[in-house]
């Protein structure tokens, strides 16, 4: 297990390079930060029209943020509800629907 107190000098002047590769530390970030905090996915100005979308990541999870017909903005996991296939492979764009290329669920 990683000793967090030893990763940054007391005066804040240096940090261990271990923060970039330690799997235990990464797992802690997933649990304590990405798993329980509000995360920035995009700015609504990037999806101004109905059907505009952008792809984003929430830690390990692929997310689609999309402008709806009623002008609201929704975010959902980029995964088909049938068997989990990824439904969107583009970084951004405009679409009427996200259709799974495996069995065609939309
Ligand atoms: S896995 Fe997507 S429709 Fe079956």
Provide an overview of this structure:
By secondary structure, this protein is α+β, with helices and mostly antiparallel strands. The protein has one domain (16-106): Rieske Iron-sulfur Protein (3-layer Sandwich). 11% of the residues lie in helices and 21% in strands. It has a four-stranded antiparallel β-sheet, with no helix packed on it. The structure holds FE2/S2 (inorganic) cluster (FES). FE2/S2 (inorganic) cluster binds next to loops. FE2/S2 (inorganic) cluster is lined by residues 80, 82-83, 85, 100, 102-105.
Distinctive features:
binds FE2/S2 (inorganic) cluster; elongated; 1 helix; four-stranded antiparallel sheet; alpha+beta; 21% strand; Rieske Iron-sulfur Protein; 106 residues; single chain
What's a concise summary of this model?
By secondary structure, this protein is α+β, with helices and mostly antiparallel strands. It is built from 1 helix and 4 strands; from the N terminus they run αββββ. Strands 3-2-1-4 form a 4-stranded antiparallel beta sheet, with no helix packed on it.
């Amino acid at each position: 297990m990683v000793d967090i107190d030893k990763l940054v000098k007391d005066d804040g002047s240096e940090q261990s390079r271990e923060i970039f590769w330690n799997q235990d530390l990464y797992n802690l970030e997933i649990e304590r930060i990405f798993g329980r905090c509000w995360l920035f996915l995009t700015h609504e100005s990037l999806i101004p029209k109905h059907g505009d979308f952008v792809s984003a990541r929430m830690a390990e999870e692929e997310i689609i943020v999309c402008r709806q017909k009623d002008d609201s903005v929704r975010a959902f996991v980029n995964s088909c509800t049938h068997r989990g296939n990824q439904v969107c492979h583009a970084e951004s764009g405009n679409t009427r629907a996200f259709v799974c290329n495996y069995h065609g669920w939309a």
